[in-house]
Specification:
Layout lengths: L10 H7 L4 H4 L19 H17 L7 H24 L2 E2 L2 E2 L1 H20 L3 H6 L12 H6 L11
Antiparallel strand pairs: 1-2
Helix pairs in contact: 3-4, 4-5
């Protein structure tokens, strides 16, 4: 099992080091990332605000993909419903007429849905430690072309 702060090597790093093994490092499915995903039509107000917040976070992490639309919808709906259950618990207390407040059970059930999604989306410090996204590589310049077409640098005349 991976440690929280251990960085996994990319396939390119394994190939460069000579440690690449097809059975371990090959065949990984990679979903293309997108800039935005259209929210469900019924999302309005706080649902739409939360949708935009979650998508912005995933886009910033470099992992926003169309395939995650349903998971994002579930996360947004569940997190807002859980917050409403918590407000009801605070307003009505933990017990009502000697019985536990039903909102407690709702809150706990929703936590079972939200927690794994939080971890998958990198919304906890521990989950972010284990995430690895490919950084944008700098544009490679052919050394021969760079020699033939030198870039003129501007120098300050202040001496």
């Amino acid at each position: 099992m991976r440690g929280g702060d251990r960085k996994s090597k990319s396939v390119e790093q394994h190939k460069a080091d000579g440690t690449y093994r097809e059975d371990r490092h090959g065949g990984k499915v990679k979903a293309p990332t997108v800039e935005a995903i259209e929210p469900p039509a019924y999302f309005k107000g706080e649902h739409l605000d939360k949708w935009n917040e979650v998508c912005a976070n995933l886009r910033e992490f470099g992992i926003l993909a169309v395939q995650d639309r349903d998971s994002i919808e579930t996360y947004v709906s569940s997190i807002l419903l859980q917050k409403k259950a918590w407000v009801q618990i605070l307003e009505n207390g933990f017990e009502s007429e000697g019985y536990p407040n039903p909102a407690i059970k709702i809150y706990q059930n929703l936590e079972g849905i939200i927690k794994p999604l939080r971890e998958q989306f990198g919304f906890t410090p521990r989950a972010r430690q284990g995430m690895q996204t490919k950084a944008k590589e700098p544009e490679r310049v052919d050394p021969i072309l760079a020699f033939l077409n030198p870039v003129k640098k501007k120098y300050d005349k202040a001496v």
